[in-house]
Each structure stands twice: as structure tokens, then as C-alpha cells.
Amino acid sequence: MKLPVPDEKQFTAPAHNERVTSKIGLALAVTFTTCFVTGLISHLIQHPPSWFFWPSRPVGLYRVTQGLHVISGVASIPLLLAKLWSVYPKLFGRPLVRSLPHAVERLSILVLSGSAFFELTTGLLNVAQNYPWGFYFPQVHYAVAWLAIGSILVHVAVKLPIIRRALTRVTAEEEPPPAAGLSRRGFLLTTGLTTGVAVVATAGATVPFLRGVSGLAWKTSKGTQNLPVNRTAAAAGVTQSARAASWRLAVVTPRGTATFSLDELRALPQTTAELPIACVEGWSQSATWRGISLPTLLKATGAQPGTTVRVSSLERSGLYGSSVLPGEHTADELTLLALELNGEVLDIDHGFPCRIIAPNRPGVLQTKWVTKLEAL
Ligand SMILES: Nc1nc2c(c(=O)[nH]1)N[C@H]1C(S)=C(S)[C@@H](COP(=O)(O)O)O[C@H]1N2
Ligand SMILES: [Mo]
């Protein structure tokens, strides 16, 4: 038996139209570019090449760029689906390959759809599940992002004449004969609404006044001391070592190693700062922190504010047991070795006895249960 293969011309829904495709494509170009640029920034902060510079102010800048990363990624999902819907009859266009450029173009669309789909689903799962892939996720997500943005550029370049034609043409002459199903305007409106709902459902994780209506913003409602907890002390295996009477902070400088008990740290001059935790997953929340500023601590041990400092946690097993504070941050009075959170002694899940909280940094670098600082 031979199954009939449909022909491209048999798909008559009004949304299969280059004007619809181009409009959604334009929106997708904006959300995807925003997502790519903000993702690149986040990657560079976490893996800084020597030429890269990220300031310590404004304190909430990363909160904004990473919030945008997640929001624009979420917005891209319904837009991508709508765009694929509007063009899928082309899959049935015949002949399959008309020319070499046509073959290259079809191949680039395959790479584009695959990589875009991969980025959006892995990103969404990461937002929802909190690092199910360990190291694997950020690296692959980063690599495939280049594939996606590259194939988008090729795609836009190839389609530019069509995009221009579709977006500049006056509509009157080509109003279609009434066909069954959603009108073009109806399709665009539905796409816009779905995108809006998806954005509102996630944005509450980082935009305070949307918190109440955001289904996906559950993270911000859990945790002690009015702040979400990313990884608990129990999960990190530090419940005993963090509470041990023998706990000391070691500060290693070219002059030697200075050690501090918790009481000795409390006796140093304290600084209070209002700073957000801005997780790479997109949630963020501000809190009031109190502790010793890095410049104060470095001067107390004979080191220079502005030197690079490696931070080590009591946590040995996890991926986030250490971080590096660049000079820009160790010279900033708002970079704290925090002992208190929202007016109380730091809860063990937030890093007791002490943790790093620095302005304008990804949450993943705000190391908890600190035991050693090394001037590099
Ligand atoms: N030692 C250690 N520090 C850590 C982490 C961790 O897993 N281990 N998680 C980081 C991440 S991803 C975030 S978002 C913040 C969250 O801090 P909180 O749990 O106090 O809100 O802690 C950071 N510090
Ligand atoms: Mo995080």
C-alpha cells in the first residue's frame, strides 16, 4: 500500500503565511539574541578569560541580566513553536532539494531547530530542577548556544529578501479567501498571549511584584531567614564541621597564614549591606547581610585589597565548594564575609559560620561555609 504524501499546497490555514512567519521570527530574533548575550555574560563571569572585566557595581546588575536570560528564554519557547507551526508545510515542499544553496539552507534549518529546541528545553529543565546534570549542563548549554546563534545568523541572512518583502508589503491586496481555522491576526494574538503568560509565570522568581502570580517562582517561597536555600548543609555534608568548636577561618597571604575563630571575626569591624542572591537559575532575592568587608579583612592580615582571593568551603564533594574573587570585588567595601543575615546569626543552610556575599555576582559564586581565603 502506498500512503499519499501531502503536498505543501494542501496546507491552507491562514497562519501558514510568510508575513506571520516573519513577524514571529522578528520577535524570536529579539528574545533569542537577548538570551544569547545575557547567557554569554553569565558564562564569562563564571569562567573569566584574562581580557574579561566585570564590575562590582551596580550591585544588582547580574540580577537583571540573568533574570532577562531566563525570561527571554522562556518567551522563546511559545514563539519557536508558533514559528515552526507556521512553516511546517514547507517540509512537504517538493522537490526535496532544488539546488546546492537550497540544500545548505534546509540543513541550516535542521541545525537551527535542533539546537534552539535543545537550548530551550535544557534551560527550562535547569530552572525547574536545580542542576540535574552537574557540570555537563552549563558546558553543553554554552556550546550549543553558539550553534544556535550561528545557524540563526545564516538563516536570517538567507531569508532577508523574504523577511523584507513580508514585513513591508501592504496587507490589503493579499487578504486571503476566508479559510477554516484561526485567522492570521488570531494566530498572532494567541502566540503573543501565550508568550505573555509564560513570561509572567516565570518572571516572579526575580521581579518582586509578580511573585504572587508566578507559578514557576516557587523557589522564592522556601528557605530559612526569609531567603530561598539552594543547597542545604545536610546535602553538602557540612552539618557537623560547620558547627564544630574547632572551626577556624584561615587567611593565607604572602605574609603567612592567619587564623580566626568565630568570636575573633565578630570582634572585627562589621559592615551591613543590602545585596541580592541572584541564582543562575533565574530566581533572585535581596537580603540584609552583615559581616567583615573583604578590604577590612585583607588589611587585618597584611594583604592588599584588590588582590585576587580564592575562597574554599568546608564542602568537599560538590561542584561549588570554591570560588575566586577578582580584585575588583576584594577592593569593594560591599564584598562581605557575612556572619549575619536579616538581623540574625547566619542559618546553617545559608552558610554558618560564614559565607561570601559580594555585589553583582552569580549566586553560584557566593560560597557558603567558608573555611579558607587565599590571596593569589
Ligand atoms: N559551598 C557551597 N556554596 C554555595 C552553593 C553550594 O552548593 N555549595 N550553592 C551556591 C548557589 S548556586 C547559590 S544560588 C547560593 C544560594 O545561597 P542560599 O542557599 O543562601 O540562598 O549559594 C551558593 N553557595
Ligand atoms: Mo544558584
UniProtKB/TrEMBL annotation:
Transmembrane annotation, as ranges: 24-46, 66-86, 107-128, 140-158
Keywords assigned: Membrane, Transmembrane, Transmembrane helix
Gene3D superfamilies: Oxidoreductase, molybdopterin-binding domain
InterPro entries linked to this entry: Di-haem_cyt_TM (IPR016174), Mopterin_OxRdtase_euk (IPR008335), OxRdtase_Mopterin-bd_dom (IPR000572), OxRdtase_Mopterin-bd_sf (IPR036374)
Listed Pfam families: Oxidored_molyb (PF00174)
Transmembrane keyword on record: yes
Entry keyword annotation includes Transmembrane helix: yes
Top-level division of the source organism's lineage: Bacteria
Stretches assigned to the Oxidoreductase molybdopterin-binding domain: 241-375
Protein name: Molybdopterin-dependent oxidoreductase
